């Protein structure tokens, strides 16, 4: 069965999660690069990466919603409603995996261990966040808020 009683498909949930993953990955990598460049401690680098993941996740959503004609404040409210839970779940899983992989946090940007662990952590976070987004969209929450400003289409490719 592909649909819930409210019509949220796995495809729609995967699309919303991929959108979230894009913002998270941009923020994570940028945070790691900045943290490494400035010699920040691991904890400070993680905090910076998480903050940037939220910033880029929200920004990607706002970009699409602003194109629908909403003003900045309203678009920000939609982005916060659409993405906060999804990004939070993704960041908890992603950073949790990075912390439990031996040596990943200390490996540095030039290490295959770091990039392999990051890729694996993002993939695991994606898989675990899709059902969360499916549940939320099926109840009119999360990315369902974005769909209301795009005529309900399933794709997020324009974001």
UniProtKB/TrEMBL annotation:
Keywords: Membrane, Transmembrane, Transmembrane helix
Start and end residues of each DUF4396 domain: 9-141
Entry's transmembrane regions: 12-34, 40-60, 72-93, 113-132
Protein name per the record: DUF4396 domain-containing protein
Organism field: Amycolatopsis orientalis (Nocardia orientalis)
């Amino acid at each position: 069965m592909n649909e819930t009683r409210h019509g949220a498909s796995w495809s729609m949930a995967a699309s919303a999660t991929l959108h979230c993953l894009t913002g998270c990955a941009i923020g994570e990598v940028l945070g790691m690069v900045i943290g490494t460049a400035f010699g920040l401690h691991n904890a400070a680098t993680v905090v910076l990466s998480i903050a940037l993941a939220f910033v880029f996740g929200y920004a990607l959503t706002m970009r699409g919603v602003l194109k629908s004609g909403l003003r900045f404040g309203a678009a920000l409210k939609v982005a916060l409603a659409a993405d906060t839970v999804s990004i939070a779940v993704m960041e908890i899983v992603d950073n949790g995996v990075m912390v439990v992989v031996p040596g990943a946090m200390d490996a540095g940007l030039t290490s295959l261990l770091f990039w392999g662990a990051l890729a694996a952590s993002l993939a695991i976070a994606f898989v675990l966040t899709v059902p969360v987004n499916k549940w939320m969209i099926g109840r009119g929450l999360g990315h369902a808020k974005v769909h209301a400003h795009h005529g309900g289409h399933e794709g997020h490719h324009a974001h």
